[in-house]
DNA sequence: ACTTGACTTAGAGTTACCTCTAAGTTGTAT
DNA sequence: ATACAACTTAGAGGTAACTCTAAGTCAAGT
């Protein structure tokens, strides 16, 4: 069973050692042992680090992650509560994805808008009175 | 052509008036006129507010949104640059969605894990030596 | 023995994005 | 005329999540 220093873990998880110490201070890594004052990470700790990463990446605040960690530590009595947290998080992700897809549409419109404008050499092509391509610049009404 | 106070706009856009003033201070709303020192929003301002919202919702920092706004103000010379910003943002969103979907899988596993554990009444069902369902509690090796 | 480099701590600083406060002004309703 | 709500400003305060600093400890290599 391997042992790892903080910076080995940091590299593996793609965060800084500073950040891991910060997580530890915030109570997110209560299982980490210390030898001569130094943190020693074990193979089985990576499972939790992966969960931590997953919750963080999906936007859960560190405080809630800590609360989840505390529930895990309490054992079987908290199974339902933990399931609920995961179900909520899944719902939150689904909502996020929907929102991103919706905003993507707006972006796609903008991309089309700029592509057309670049073709025409000017953004004015999109203003109301320019929609008629037969209209020459000097024929465009002032307002 | 309608005119709107800051709090009308705030409600319509789902942000606080405080926040709109902050955006103005940060240079994100350079077009807003003032009458007697008070901001007056016009119908056409909502188009930009929608774009602002879209970029913000998809994670663009306010500074970059401001930069984009400045490019818009400069006119046709910046069309290519603005197209590029939109293309980059689209790519960023796509990456975000992929990442969320990936993390969703981890979450789905956890949901399954807790559902099984709740069925069994204990999380121990998932530990290695419990994978054999014919094994009775008193037959489980100690370590 | 000494240097090197990774580790430790408490705590200060940073960035992004608000969020609020205080003191004052203005427009509208009664 | 007066009250009242909504607006204004500059600037302070807040929160999340780092990020860094200073001063020190420890273990391994030469």
Structure description:
2 copies of one chain form a homodimer. With 143 residues, chain A is mainly alpha-helical. Chain A has 2 domains: 3-60, Multidrug-efflux Transporter Regulator, Chain: A, Domain 2; 75-143. Chain A has 5 helices and 3 strands; from the N terminus they run βααββααα. Chain A has helices at 6-13, 17-25, 45-57, 62-74, 79-120; strands at residues 3-4, 33-35, 38-42. In chain A, strands 1-3-2 form a 3-stranded antiparallel beta sheet. In chain A, α1 (6-13) crosses α2. The longest helix of chain A is centred in the C-terminal third of the chain and has 42 residues, at 79-120. Chain A is elongated and about 70 Å long. Chain B binds a DNA duplex (30 and 30 nucleotides) through residues 5-7, 16-19, 21-22, 25-26, 34, 36-39, 61-63.
Blueprint of the fold:
Two copies of one chain form a homodimer.
Chain A: E1 3-4, H1 6-13, H2 17-25, E2 33-35, E3 38-42, H3 45-57, H4 62-74, H5 79-120
Helix pairs in contact in A: 1-2
Chain B binds a DNA duplex (30 and 30 nucleotides) through helix 2.
Average per-residue pLDDT of chain A, rounded, comes to 90
**Widest sheet of chain A: strand order?**
1-3-2
Q: Helix content range of the residues of chain A, please?
A: 55-70%
Sheet with the most strands, sense and barrel status of chain A? 3 strands, antiparallel
Task: Report Rg of chain A.
Answer: 27 Å
Quantity of strands of chain A, as a count: 3
Strand portion of chain A: 5-15%
Shape, per Cα inertia axes of chain A:
elongated
* Total domain units of chain A: 2
The string of secondary-structure elements of chain A, in order, is EHHEEHHH
- Unreliable sequence segments of chain A: 131-143
Number of helices of chain A: 5
Regarding quaternary structure, how should these chains be classified? homodimer
């Amino acid at each position: 069973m391997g042992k790892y220093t903080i910076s080995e873990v940091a590299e593996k998880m793609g965060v800084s050692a500073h950040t891991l110490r910060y997580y530890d201070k915030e109570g997110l890594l209560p299982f980490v042992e210390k030898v001569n004052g130094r943190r020693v990470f074990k193979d089985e700790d990576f499972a939790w680090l992966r969960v931590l990463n997953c919750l963080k990446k999906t936007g859960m605040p560190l405080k809630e992650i800590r609360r989840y960690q505390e529930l895990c530590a309490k054992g079987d009595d908290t199974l339902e509560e933990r399931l609920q947290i995961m179900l909520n998080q899944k719902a939150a992700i689904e909502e996020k994805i929907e929102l991103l897809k919706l905003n993507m549409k707006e972006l796609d419109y903008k991309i089309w808008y700029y592509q057309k404008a670049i073709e025409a050499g000017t953004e004015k092509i999109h203003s109301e009175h320019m929609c008629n391509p037969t209209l020459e610049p000097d024929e465009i009404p002032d307002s």
